[in-house]
Amino acid sequence: MKRAVDHSAMIIAGYTTPWSAASGQSVSLHLSSVEPVRTVNVRRLDLPSPRSMDWPMQFDSASCAHRDFNQGSFLRISANEVRKAGCLKGISFELLLTQNESPRTILKHGPLSLLLRNGKVVLEIDSIELELLPATKHSWLTVTVENDDECLAVEVRGHDALYPIHFRRRIDAVSWKNLSQDILFGSDGEDKCPTLNARFAAIKLLTEDGEVNWTFPTLLPRGNILDKNRMLVLEVLNNPTFCVTSLRWDGSGFDPRIAPTHYDAIHCHDDDMGPLDWPASVIAEVPAAAEPGVYAFEVTCDSGKEDIVFFVSTREARAPLLFVIPTATYLAYADEFLPPHLYEWLCEDRGQRFAVDNNLRSLYDYHSDHSGVSLCSYRKPKATLRADYRYPLCGCPHNLPVDLHFLRFCHDNGIAVDIMTDHDLHERGPQSLMHYKAVVTGSHPEYVSMEMEGALREFLSSGGSLAYLGGNGFAGTVAFQDDLMELRRSPLEAGRTWDGPVSEQALSITNEPGGYLRNRGRGEFSLVGGAISLMGFSGARPFSRTPASHAPKHAWLFEGVSNETFGDSGMVLGGAAGYEVDATDPHLGTSPGVVVVARATGFPDDFFHDPTRWYQGGEDEQNSRRCAEMTIRHLAAGGLIFSASSVAWCGALPETGEMNDVGVITRNLLERLSMDRS
């Protein structure tokens, strides 16, 4: 359906293309606003005091209109393609209905419609309306509509042996031949009602010249689907989900690369969204001398202003340290729906409210038919990606504002860092790291592609170091294709996120397994030594040094820290260890070389354990492991890996012009890593 942007919560919304640019490139800003835009400026956000930039800019005020967007995926065979197919005798397709609120359209062609209404499949043609059969959810059906002179026949055959369905209805004195209109699957074509939540497969046109067949590939296509014999086009609109099980899946395997015919279906949802294509309101030229950093278009109207964030990514090494911005995590969380009736909001945030008002979904949310959202584009308003964002589940900053706090700390303390997004690292590979001494992460680098993780491992094996300044990092696998990112969740990822079926863990972009990297022999335990152990939204805890931290090999990290306990304040839940924290586990892959140098304990009871861990000692051992563990590992190639083990760590850094123990430790670490490789 087409819907106008609801600006009740945010007067201005927009996105940039690209999301990450290099110096010398241009960045386009695509806006929707219900008021005239008065000014647009570029500001750099990662400095202690955000600074306006005097960049060349083209501003088209006429393109700052109130925009709309399409929501709901469906399929279409255009009238032109139908004419190419020849004299149409019938349409056949496989259908699996999911959760729908009536009414919905299953099939529409000219005067003929198959509808879902009041729990029934209904046929409408001309002035005739017939209830055919009860709608059966989550059971595959083959639907065939045929035309023979003055007779129309509709057949529905079910494929559940325990609940057999075979329905055939012949309607005399009704003729259906209409080649001048589109054939639509899952949409009425007029936006009168939402699109259909359903799976489709094996779509066929029956013509006098034979069949035209479309097969859905397991790999996400970059365009529409072609019939192999006659190259006729089946259009796929608004990002439905590919690589899902079809009627042919029999449970004998879970890999679409081995049995592609088991995964030749497509799942359409009424809240799917494709990449937006709003016109450019502003085009800014990034100067060749522009420094890598976090920037934003500051857009003002009479009644308010908003920042639309983008990044300038380095193309060559200018500093010894490289900060990798976790845009995969930012995009996974962007516009999280967080239905207030399911989750207690501890604070109001206008971006979160904007997501609810516009029925947006993040990769943490469910579709309306209770299947998980697995695919999204950065070409959309990311209303929760702001410097002043507050996460309603914890009432404090999360993701970008915490990472900005770290970058401002670096500028305030003369620590030189280059900036690159993780998506850029994915595309450029290990060679983009070779001239750096260390890679530094943000507060929550939760999602990585196999290419990103492989590049880091190659960098570390060649003598580089890693400062992992967050928690719950390097955990989930994502894949990229152009502006799209995909995430498939494992059934073991219990909590507030959706769980995908084991049979549908494969990513449609690559067909490789999704879910946790650790299930592929990679990921957080083998890379940084620990993984998420606890998660909670109440008070964070301080860290206390361990005896190992006083050994000469590690004492440099704490030079200038007089207290054994540190980190009892911060912008994220009031401390240095909180929200999500990591701990070691030798049974899950922590290397013997990982040394715990500080530990946080005493977490409130509402911090719950990672459900994927098993404790041989039972509840007593589990309770003894309610901790966050800061670690160091010295590598054979000469580098080291530091893990802060907490999403809240960067939030506990001092404000500009101040210093505290968390700041001293972080400064000691980064200054050490800025030195030549040993």
Total count of domains: 3
The end-to-end distance, rounded to whole angstroms, is 60 Å
Give the second-level CATH assignment, the architecture of the largest domain.
Answer: 3-Layer(aba) Sandwich
Number of helices: 10
Domain N,N-dimethylformamidase beta subunit-like C-terminal: 244-654
Protein name: N,N-dimethylformamidase beta subunit-like C-terminal domain-containing protein
Organism: Flavimaribacter sediminis
InterPro entries: DMFA2_C
Description:
Residues 244-654 form the N,N-dimethylformamidase beta subunit-like C-terminal domain. With 678 residues, the protein is mainly beta. The protein folds into three domains: 2-63 and 277-309, Immunoglobulin-like, CATH 2.60.40; 74-268, Sandwich (Jelly Rolls), CATH 2.60.120; 422-481 and 515-673, Rossmann fold (3-Layer(aba) Sandwich). 12% of the residues lie in helices and 32% in strands. Strand 42 (628-634) and strand 43 (640-643) form a beta hairpin. The longest helix has 13 residues, at 400-412. The chain is globular and about 95 Å long. The N and C termini lie far apart (60 Å).
